[in-house]
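Worked example

This section walks through a single chain of length 442. The input is the sequence exactly as stored; nothing has been trimmed or padded.
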Amino acid sequence: MNVKVVKFGGSSLADAKQITKAADIIKSDEKRRYVVPSAPGKRFSDDIKVTDMLYNCNSLAMENKSIDNAFGAIAERYNGIISDLGLDLSLDNEFAEIKKNISAKAGSEYAASRGEYLNGIVIAALLGYEFIDAATVIVFNEDGSFNNEKTQPKLRDRLKNVERAVIPGFYGADVNGVVRTFSRGGSDVTGSIIASAVKADVYENWTDVSGFLVADPRIVENPKAINVITYKELRELAYMGATVLHEDAIFPVRAAGIPINIKNTNVPEDPGTMIVSEVSEDEFNKYTITGIAGKKGFAAINIEKAMMNSELGFCRKVLEVLERNGISIEHMPSGIDTLSLIFPYGQIEGKEDEVIAQIRKAVAPDHIELEKGIAILAVVGRGMIRTRGTAARIFASMAHARINVKMIDQGSSELNVIIAIGESDFEEAIRKIYEMFINSAE
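Given that input, the structure is written out below as tokens.
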């Protein structure tokens, strides 16, 4: 029997109405055998996610304050969901245990994980699936890092005779039984780990958008959806700020060759975005590019020195200064007598003068300056490999908008082109690139 692992995000499980939609989706395909739920998300714009409510309980407990009212609101939220679903289910014992542990300062990871834990019990009861506590199958090391080597055999052994199960996302436990969590959005990672363990045909990730979009809809009006994207392209876009899927969720399924399908709980008939290892020639997008993403908040140290190119160890000396100061560079464009180092500004903030002084001492430049307010854009697409003039078209779109390009860089894979611009030009640059590569291709 073929297997699908399905993960539902917080917005897809925010209330009984959304949970019912998710249940209908699961029941509509018998291949959907393993379900990974998040904690209930926001029901409306000013609502509070259950995870944040639990973080608040933990904060109160750490300050030796009563959590009665704060935790009561959480219990009320779940009891409302149970009532609206018409379930004969009581979570009173679980509530009592969780409240006692949070009050006893079990910690923020334990507190935050209980949203998924409780929602998993509810959804398992609704579906009639077995509930498996993620703490019994997802293994972390004592330092809080995930241990895949121990997790995979444990998961396979636990699930080998389980036809259908609900396994909460986001958390697991270390070898001492202490609850540990992935970073926020970590339910994506849990789903990927389980898909790898059961050798799923597809890992379906259900959310509130119909897959990845070519550009941020807050910047570009009604951007096109991406039908098929490779893991390499996704990695580039996720790193540059595209946030539909948790970045770490890529690796377990990529290694196993399992495709990910990003789907919309509210519009389940939409095909969504299929994330795959490789594509055939007939699956290439009709557009040269697959997506545009970017981030603000960068700075550059620009260095000039005559005959820099013939000075042995010049770059090494500069990089050693940055390493000592905890600064990791994103890009390092250079010329014969010039070198620029681009990095997140937050890593140098408060110690700018000190770092510049150390570089002066290390390499005695003719000129050195710190430039703030830089944004970096990534134009990503497997279609660039077979299309000439991509960089020229990016330059043309910038020139038409009178946007100054501070740096352009293309990796050896020809999968992406990186450009650096001023933060004030960030949104307009994305719109102009979109017009050049998407609208003009219509």
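What to look for: The CA atoms of residues 139 and 151 lie 5 Å apart.
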